[in-house]
Amino acid sequence: MIDPMDNPIFLNDFLDYSSTILNKSPNSIKEYNYDIAHFLKFIKNRFRMVKIEKIEQIREIKIDDMDLDTIKKITLEDIHAFLAYLKSNYNSKPATIARKASTIRIFFHYLCNKSKRIHINPAQDLENPKLDRRLPKYLSLEQSEKLLETVSTPKEKTHGNHDNSVRNFAIITLFLNCGMRLSELVGIDIKDISFEDSKLNVIGKGNKERTIYLNKACLRAVKAYLEVRPHDQIKSDSRDALFLSEQKKRISNRTVQYVVKEELRNAGIDPEKYSVHKLRHTAATLMYKYGQVDIRALQELLGHESIATTQIYTHVDNDQIRTAVEKNPLSNF
Length: 333
Prior knowledge:
Blueprint: H1 9-20, H2 26-46, H3 68-71, H4 76-90, H5 94-114, H6 141-151, H7 165-178, H8 182-186, E1 193-194, E2 199-203, E3 209-213, H9 216-228, H10 253-266, H11 276-290, H12 295-302, H13 307-310, H14 318-326
Antiparallel strand pairs: 1-2, 2-3
Helix pairs in contact: 1-2, 2-5, 4-5, 6-7, 7-9, 7-11
């Protein structure tokens, strides 16, 4: 939970700008606050404005008294030092460091170009860290079918007092067929679904709304869940939510992650190797591999801003590559 009292005024102004003008989601605002606050705490220690005994105590530094005169002294080298600190002390991955670098870049762009509070932007030449390009992990078609088969089997009431197999089957079905993000699934309201048009509206990254078309499997699974979904004593702020927890409130990210891990384990699939996001990779890979889906259509379906993000799925199908080589007219020479 963000407490504005812990922030200097200029940071709160940046968060307000990001929320209203940039239309960033509450999750993005929370991440911005966390990243910039951590950066400013590091700066206070680097500039010897506070005295700490251990590097771990940087997180405890207060920044509500920080002023713009300090901000004006920050250089590109100070930003590099912060990113190096993240890597050495938290073993942050390149993708994490890249995200935090992006936040810092947006923050200083606001201070320099939008609010005109500083005249020199120290992050203007900040480069993106080089990222490792790794092929996404995904379930095979056989593993996906096994997972769905396992989830569809009613379970004994070993967890809580309910058999959640119908709900869990709908969740896994949507992940594997639509490739939606965790936050998108959790945020689904019943009114977002049009059974007549076989489609669903979700709110993706950057608060952007997009349409996902539902196939017969998704429609059947969701309709089956709605038949058993609780109708009474639902928490007031969760009455519109599609998926509910046993506490009769909107299901949380953590609960969905737990469900996926448990269902993977039940299906004999290593839950440490795969995750909710890997189910998104699986959906994209299966559509590209078996559905011959155009890369642009896949980009639209997944809600990727850049097609470069989607193109990773064009490299995962070794069978297609092998077939292409075998079909070379010179293969029998």
